[in-house]
Amino acid sequence: MKAVQYREIGKGPEVVEVDTPEPGPGQIRLKVTAAGLCHSDWFVMGLPAEQYTYGLPLTLGHEGAGVVDKLGEGVEGIELGGSYAIYGPWGCGVCHACAQGKENYCPDAADLGITPPGLGAPGAMAEYVIVDDKRHLVPLGDLDPVEVVSLTDAGLTPYHAIVSAKEHLHAGAVAVVIGVGGLGHVGVQIIRAVSGATVIAVDVSEEKLELAKEVGAHHVVASDEHAVERIRELTGGRGADAVFDFAGVQPTIDIARQVVAVDGDIQIVGIGGGILATGFFSTPFGASVRAPYWGSRSELMEVLDLARNGSIGVHVERYSIDEAPEAYARLHEGTVRGRAVVAP
Fold first, then answer.
1. In 3-state terms, what secondary structure has residue 172?
2. CATH class of 2-153+295-342
3. Which of 35, 105, 137, 159 is least surrounded by CB atoms within 10 angstroms?
């Protein structure tokens, strides 16, 4: 089968031929219908050799969906031919966090060698993918996998961050979304769907700010030297009740710190490597700072329900598996509008 793999430190992804995998006991094989590209992939591929821990070759694709093609021994309750999305942050399944469906915060996964597909385990950027357990599959029903596969990360991650900040998103609140690319443009829609907050979108790209307006942002602000002043003006000098930073680079984190209100909340979702010092004389009184990771299994179900009722959607650029390296190049250059998806 064809697969898109990261094969050599410092080089980009390649399309290669590999053996079609067979499901073991308890496992499920999917014929992949869609796989999403993510900036996290480039973060992984950009790591130096001494920091890279994901194994080589690595089949990419931590956002995946497919049709059940073959069941391993002992698997019941999963429909052959059924369409499913893959829940990516696999955990041990038996700890306190996993018992709540919060496998994204499993404390034992790393020690047990359990890794997400595309981030250690073979991912969905291939013609077939193995899912380790049926609990990691969520039925798609009649949802188009190409249109919704990105929601397994680009929807789930902002949803988890936004829900955890829900007490700050009351009617009349102001939410600032910094970075309105792949995750951020979905984040704007989620805030509008689950709260009465006013949304201010911030980005360096005029095209992405236009997209933010299209999907529901009330105001857009260029991410420049006047951004803090402009946001303060829009909030009457009070600042934002919640700030969601989907870039996580130092300049955006600095904006977040300067615009969050007293007793507000900052969610640093992006993995750009910026650092935010907290405490007296750094952040306002009562302000909280959180670095959320992915989301729970039940939250993925909720995200897909939002897509099912039309509350949220992803702007998708579609590519074939042979075009995946080109799509990754566009992602790296920042020219993808919304989310890139490979449909094998």
1. coil
2. alpha beta
3. 105
CA distance 12 to 5: 9
Q: Which pTM does this prediction carry?
A: 0.95
C-alpha pair distances (Å), 254 with each of 62, 76, 95, 248, 341: 30, 50, 37, 10, 32
CATH H-level superfamily of 156-290: NAD(P)-binding Rossmann-like Domain (3.40.50.720)
Q: Where are the domains of the chain?
A: 2-153+295-342, 156-290
Spatial strand order of the sheet with 58-59 comes to 14-17, 2-6, 58-59
Q: For the segment 81-114, what is each residue's pLDDT rounded down to a tens digit?
A: 999 999 999 999 999 999 999 999 999 999 999 9
**Pair of tokens at residue 249:** 């680079």
Q: How many CB atoms lie within 10 A of CB 309?
A: 8
| Kind plus residue range of the DSSP H or E element containing 131 | strand 128-131
CB atoms within 10 A of CB 2: 17
> Is residue 285 classed as helix, strand or coil in its secondary structure?
coil
Q: What is the pLDDT of residues 179-236, one digit of tens each?
A: 999 899 999 999 999 999 999 999 999 999 999 999 999 999 999 999 999 999 999 9
